[in-house]
Design goal:
This protein has 213 residues and is an alpha+beta fold. A six-stranded antiparallel β-barrel has the order 1-2-3-6-5-4. The radius of gyration is 20 Å and the shape is globular. A hairpin with a 4-residue loop joins strand 4 and strand 5. The chain has a single domain, classed as Roll (Pnp Oxidase, Chain A). The chain binds flavin mononucleotide (FMN). Flavin mononucleotide (FMN) binds next to strand 2, strand 3 and helix 2.
């Protein structure tokens, strides 16, 4: 096995100074997200790792795709009966991290999470490819399934159920909005003296501060 202790990269691609950072977290996220999305080297620029905490205090993290990024926060879609949904029902806060390693950048967000309005879910679901729409009906996400064949049967049943007709959003599927009250931008620098700029909601006001790396 490759010895991970021997792997070493220099972080020299950029910097994040108080003079250049945007005035709002969403302004800065737009700049970095657009740079990631415009660079073919960055695969799935909207992939974000989402951490939740279960009712027993056990944390869990998994990747989801951010399908909305705006002043409200980050919207992702999932199964409302999944393990993450159970965590969020018990503890409606989450942390998320975008990491664009090719750009030597990460953005961490944390804050309360709530379901989006049903109309927002339905509008997004209607844009999804038909196969993905069927998948949302077919998959009992996070449940144990007996075999791949059993999963394929569920997919066939969903396809038969809808035939060539329109596929509505399943009631057990929809969006969540993570409304951050903290957002931290990290840019790798030389000698591990990285730039970290955090936006933190203090009452009604956002405070911007630099953190030690
Ligand atoms: C690149 C990538 C994108 C993913 N996007 C989503 C997504 O948008 N929604 C989702 O429910 N799961 C997505 N998944 C699968 C989740 O990581 C996870 O396996 C699933 O949601 C079940 O998580 P849970 O059992 O903790 O609820 C994605 C996985 C990867 C690797």
């Amino acid at each position: 096995m490759t010895d991970p202790a021997g792997l070493r990269a220099n972080y020299t691609r950029g910097h994040l100074d108080e003079t250049e950072v945007a005035g709002t977290w969403i302004g800065q996220l737009r700049v970095w997200f657009d740079a990631a999305a415009a660079d073919p080297v960055v695969l799935e620029p909207n992939a974000v790792q989402l951490a939740t905490v279960g009712p027993d205090g056990r944390p869990a993290v998994r990747t989801v795709l951010a399908k909305g990024i705006d002043e409200r926060g980050i919207v992702f879609y999932t199964n409302y009966d999944s393990a993450k949904a159970r965590d969020l029902a018990a503890n409606p806060r989450a942390a998320a991290v975008f990491v664009w390693v090719a750009h030597q950048r990460q953005v961490r967000l944390s804050g309360p999470v709530r379901k989006v309005e049903r109309a927002e879910t339905e509008a997004y679901f209607a844009q999804r490819p038909r196969e993905s729409q069927l998948g949302a009906w077919a998959s009992p996400q996070s449940q144990v399934v007996a075999s791949r064949a059993a999963l394929d049967r569920l997919a066939d049943e969903a396809a038969a159920r809808f035939g060539d007709g329109a596929i509505p959003a399943p009631p057990h599927w929809g969006g969540y909005l993570l409304e951050p009250d903290e957002v931290e931008f990290w840019q790798g620098r030389e000698g591990r003296l990285h730039d970290r700029i955090r936006f933190r909601l203090a009452g009604e006001d956002w405070v911007r501060e630099r953190l030690a790396p």
